[in-house]
């Protein structure tokens, strides 16, 4: 089949197919007498595997290792081990994302709980102190004296807090 038909059957752009061929993920197509590429039916399966692999989070280099020269050369145990590792990686990312989401939702709730009579700067300090960020700065190992720049920032913060 020619590259146009392959693109139609896989839903990939012809430029993407040429790219995969150029980097060695797809076997080079044989050239017809007129110079057009001619792909075997197996190319559809390989390109679909590449697309599924990328959606699952595999890098192109990881896919290069997974896809042998021919589908008949796949090493069953090695393939399953690699897929299991990727599933564990995804589960780890999901747990990390769930934790991050939980922290952000809590932060939003803290910000939204601003009393009506409180200005934004005071609310920011309230929220940050509730997160322990203010304590971490106050408990640093080396005591610091206020520099001119630091004193200026604090003065500006007080002035902006006083604004309505």
Could you write a compact summary of the structure shown?
The protein has a two-stranded antiparallel sheet with strand order 1-2.
Instruction: Catalogue the unreliable spans.
Output: 136-153, 155-164
Oligomer: single chain
- Written as H for each helix and E for each strand, in order along the chain, the element string is HHEEHHHHHH
Number of strands: 2
- The main sheet orders its strands as 1-2
Structural class based on helices, strands and sheet pairing? mainly alpha
Enumerate how many helices there are, as a single number. 8
Name the beta content range: under 5%
Q: Give the CA-based shape.
A: elongated
Under CATH, the topology of the largest domain is which?
Answer: Multidrug-efflux Transporter Regulator, Chain: A, Domain 2
Arithmetic mean pLDDT: 81
Radius of gyration: 29 Å
Number of individual domains: 2
Query: What is the helix content?
Result: 55-70%
CATH architecture of the largest domain: Orthogonal Bundle
Largest sheet: 2 strands, antiparallel
């Amino acid at each position: 089949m020619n590259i146009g038909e392959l693109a139609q059957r896989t839903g990939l752009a012809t430029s993407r197919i040429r790219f995969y061929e150029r980097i060695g993920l797809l076997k080079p197509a044989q050239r017809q007498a007129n110079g057009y590429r001619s792909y075997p039916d197996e190319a559809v399966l390989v390109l679909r595997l590449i697309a599924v692999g990328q959606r699952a989070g595999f890098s192109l280099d990881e896919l290069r290792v997974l896809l042998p020269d021919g589908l008949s050369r796949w090493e069953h145990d090695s393939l399953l081990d690699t897929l299991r590792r990727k599933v564990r990686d995804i589960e780890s990312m999901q747990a990390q994302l769930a934790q991050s989401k939980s922290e952000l939702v809590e932060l939003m709730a803290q910000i939204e709980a601003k009393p009506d009579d409180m200005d934004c700067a005071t609310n920011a300090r309230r929220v940050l102190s509730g997160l322990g960020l203010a304590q971490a700065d106050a408990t640093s190992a080396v005591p610091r004296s206020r520099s001119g720049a630091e004193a200026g920032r604090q003065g500006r913060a007080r002035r902006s807090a006083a604004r309505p």
